[in-house]
Amino acid sequence: MSVAVVILNFNGQNYLERFLPSVESGSDSDFAVVVADNCSTDGSVEWLEKRGYLPYSAQSLENGARHFFVRLERNFGFAEGYNRALAQIRRFDYYVLLNSDVEVPMGWMEPVVAVLDEDPSVGACQPKIRLHAVPGQFEYSGAAGGWIDHLGYPFCRGRIFETLEHDEGQYDDPAEVFWASGAALFVRAELFHAIGGFDGDYFAHMEEIDLCWRIKRAGYKVMVCPRSHVWHIGGGTLPKVNSHKTFLNFRNSLTSVLKNAPKRRVFAMVFARLVLDGVAGARFLVRGEWGNIWAVVRAHFSFYGKMPQNLRKRILYKRLINRHGFTSPPVFNDRGLYRGSIVWAYFAKGTKKFHELDT
Predict the structure, then answer these.
(1) 10 Å Cβ neighbour count for 114?
(2) How many CB atoms lie within 10 A of CB 163?
(3) Beta-strand pair 221-232/102-103
(4) What tens digit of pLDDT does each residue of 280-327 get?
(5) In contact, 181 and 96? CB cutoff 8 Å
(6) d(Cα 356, Cα 359) in Å, to the nearest integer?
(7) How far apart are CA 145 and CA 171, in angstroms?
(8) Are 127 and 110 in contact (CB under 8 A)?
(9) Considering the entire predicted model, what is its pTM?
(10) pLDDT digits (tens, 9 = 90+) for 133-188
(11) Bridging pattern class, strands 122-131 and 221-232
C-alpha cells in the first residue's frame, strides 16, 4: 500500500525545522512526505527546496523521489488547504494528515497502517496523541480517540472539555471511536475524496469530526491504534485562548450537527445546542471574556446566514454517502456515540475522566 504523509504548513518554518526530520526518519516503510504550503511568507518553501524537496509530480514519484511540496496560491486554511493539496496527489492509497507541530517516534506509522490493511471496513484511524510539553499526558486535540454525545458535543478518551488525563495505559485497547484527530489522521485516500473531503468553509477546527461523521454514516469504522503514539504541541495555528478559535469551534460544531444529524432529530438538536451555547456565553460573561461572548454571537449569525447553503450540502453528502457506503445501503456505525449528555456529566455530575462515563 502507498502512503503519503501530508503536512499542511503556513508560516511554520520553525515547526518544519524542528519536527520534519522525525517524520522523514520515523518509519522503515516506503512512504512519501508532502508539505502542502498555504502561501507562506516566512521562507518555508525555500527551506524545503534547500532540503531537497521537489514540487510534487507523478513523474518524480515514479522516479523514486519521496520528498515533495505543493504550493497553494493563498492561505486556504486547514480544511480547504488540505482539499486542494490532496486533489493534486491522488496516487496514494492512504493519506496521513499530520500537523506541522507533531513529533513522531520511530515505528509510529506501521501499526496504524496495519489496522487499515487488515480491515477494509476501517475508513480512518489515529494513534494516541500526547502533549509534547508533558509527554505522559494526553493532548487536547485527540487524546486516545474522539467521541461525541447525543447533541454532537465532542470529547475524547483521555480528555473531556479542559480536563486532560495522564496516559497510564488505561486506553491501550484498540477501539472504535467516533472521530479521529486531524492532528494525526490516517484515512483511505479514495474514501476521503469519494465522500466530499473536508468542508472547506470550516477554515479550521471541527473539520475532521465532520469528515469522520460522514465516514461513520457510510458504515465504515473509525479506530484508534494505541500501539502508536505521537507528541503534539497544540495551538500551532491558533493559540488556545483565542476568540477567533471560539468562533470557529461554535460555528463549525453547529454546522456539523445540521449536516449530519438524523432527519428526525436534527432541528431539535440544533435548538438544544443554541440554548446551551447561550449558557456557555453566560459562563464567558462571568469570567469577563468579552471577546469569546462576541465570538459566540458571531458564530450564531454566521450559522444562520449559511444555513441554506449547509442544508444543500446535507443533501449532497447524503448522496455521496449512499453512493460510496461500505454496504449498500450504508448503515450508520454509531460506535463512539455517547447516549447521554457530556455537558451534564461533566458540569453537573462532576465526571472528569472518560472511563468514569457509563458508555
Answers:
(1) 15
(2) 15
(3) antiparallel
(4) 998 898 899 999 999 999 999 999 999 999 999 999 999 999 999 999
(5) no
(6) 9
(7) 9
(8) no
(9) 0.95
(10) 999 999 999 999 999 999 999 999 999 999 999 999 999 999 999 999 999 999 99
(11) parallel
